[in-house]
Amino acid sequence: MGGSRWGENKTVAGRILSGNQIRDQILAELAEQVADLARRGVVPGLTAVLVGDDPASQIYVRNKMAACEKIGLRSRTLRPPADLSTEDLLAIVEELNADPEVDGILVQLPLPRQVDADRILLAIDPAKDVDGFHPMNVGALATGKPRLVSCTPAGLIEILKRSDIPIAGKRAVVLGRSNIVGKPAALLLLAENATVTVCHSRTQDLPSVAREADILVAALGRPAMIGADCIRPGAVVLDVGINRITDPAEAERIFARQPEKLARFREKGSILVGDVHPADMEELASAYTPVPGGVGPLTIAMLMSNTVRAAVLRRG
Ligand code: GUN
User: What's the predicted TM-score (pTM) here?
Assistant: First the structure.
């Protein structure tokens, strides 16, 4: 054997957990299930409510509807104007709740400021709440009887399971405590028998807690904030962040060790980065989700999964 031994390598690139591949796998499985339901006369339907004309929301909703079409679900987008009132939107939600053809209701966030988002999310029939945001569904998850679970956290578990990464007994550290990602991610990891710690902006000495993680989930919404001091060598790192960088100095700093990415930034004037420093993650993690193409693609796949599940649960 030559002189180079595994242990002498300073940097060993970790395994890339491809969200695109896992998404395609899940969508293929769902397409079969949908075809099966169709043969029995059931075609699950998702209705999205897209308020106003926020460009990012338009792209997200378009991608969600495209996924519906791909796997054979009925889909529809309602586009009420940006100046509607909470009462107007409540009336739309009530109509969708009562419509037997609607299996899933998705009210795209953020909503305009004058709309009380909490009241809207509370008004959605929990049986049709494919985002898993309703307190009833959050409570079901918290008490260990999940029904419809928030899509991004559910996607994290799918990535781990489908990549044969064991969860039970492992130390999981979740960075971020949002209702949409951090908290449900912690509850799902707990349900899989991980030992779970949640860190947040007030955590003291966050790096030393993060370094305890066998499975590190970063969901803080801060570009490349989690660096080498937070990653135990060999940890599995799931990066939920999707941040668009446009500041050249910031790009130079973050991508100093990745010239090909820096070149792409210079060409396009912007680039996506997760919450974890990409070069540190590549060098230290045993496996990691890249940004883009890691956790992101799973969110839509799990929305499709929730829509099919809602249809099956609701229609018996
Ligand atoms: N806006 C950004 N992400 C989401 C999501 O997962 N669901 C909804 N409804 N709105 C969003």
Answer: 0.94
C-beta 213 within 6 A of ligand 1: no
pLDDT of residue 11: 57
Catalytic annotation, pick one of 108, 128, 183, 261:
108
pLDDT single digits (tens) 97-155: 999 999 999 999 999 999 999 999 999 999 999 999 999 999 999 999 999 999 999 99
Let me know whether 13 and 55 are in one domain. no
302 CB near ligand 1 (under 6 Å): no
Phi, psi of 271 (to 5 degrees): -160, 150
Number of domains in the chain: 2
Among 99, 126, 153, give the residue marking a domain's end. 126
**Boundaries of domain holding 115:** 42-126
Q: Domain of 286: which CATH number?
A: 3.40.50.720
- Helices then strands (H, E): number in the chain? 12, 11
What is the per-residue pLDDT across 179-234, written as a single tens digit (0 to 9) for each?
999 999 999 999 999 999 999 999 999 999 999 999 999 999 999 999 999 999 99
Of 98, 61, 32, give the one whose Cα is nearest residue 314.
98
With CA atoms as reference, report the closest residue to 230 among 244, 217, 243, 245: 217
Q: What is the CATH number of the domain that holds 62?
A: 3.40.50.10860
Q: Is 103 a catalytic residue?
A: no
Answer yes or no: is the C-beta of 131 below 6 A from any ligand 1 atom. Answer: yes
DSSP 3-state of 63: helix
